[in-house]
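A favour, since you know our structure tokens better than I do. It will help me judge whether the discrete encoding reads sensibly. The space below this message is yours for that.
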Amino acid sequence: MAAPLICPSILASDFARLGEEVAALETAGADWVHVDVMDGHFVPNITIGPEVVKALRPHTKLPFDVHLMVAPVDPWLEAYREAGADYLTVHPESGPHLHRTLGRIRQLGAKAGVVLNPGTSLSVLEEVVELVDLVLLMSVNPGFGGQSFIPSTLRKIERTRALLDAAGSKAHLQVDGGVTAANAGACVAAGADALVAGTAVFRGGPAAYADNIRALKAA
């Protein structure tokens, strides 16, 4: 079984030194940088605008995996792509026309992703699977870091992997929320190939990042 991609969420980083944090992640062996964008409306928090993403882009060559928790989402796609996003992932609930939104992301030259909340049905994915490069399963309800992993997510990972395989899709299957070295192995065994982790990567400061990332990959 291949080691998963580790995608640290900078929501858990030191915001006073974001550029240094992103550079340190690359040195530590991270695969992607996960950027949680929250608007205070779709989810109960406000985080990172496109100008911050643009400012971070020169600090690393790692792909930027931008999770848009905003509604309506369509007006923001171009700005985050121009800022340096490589992946743009959107929630079906954040706009009226998911198929059109995913097509627009691809038109902009980014990889398109769909995010499914714990209460969102996989049936949504069935209708757009041919447009998807990334499926992100939330293992917590979005809006805050530091939440506990919802155990039933493991069954949803298995069902999503089966759906992707049946469709012949090469999309990455990513899990986000309460991911730690204690449950990372179960997520991968269920079919995930990319893990978003916040506290599990950033605890202990930059000197610990490499060990924390290795622990997640080896779990």
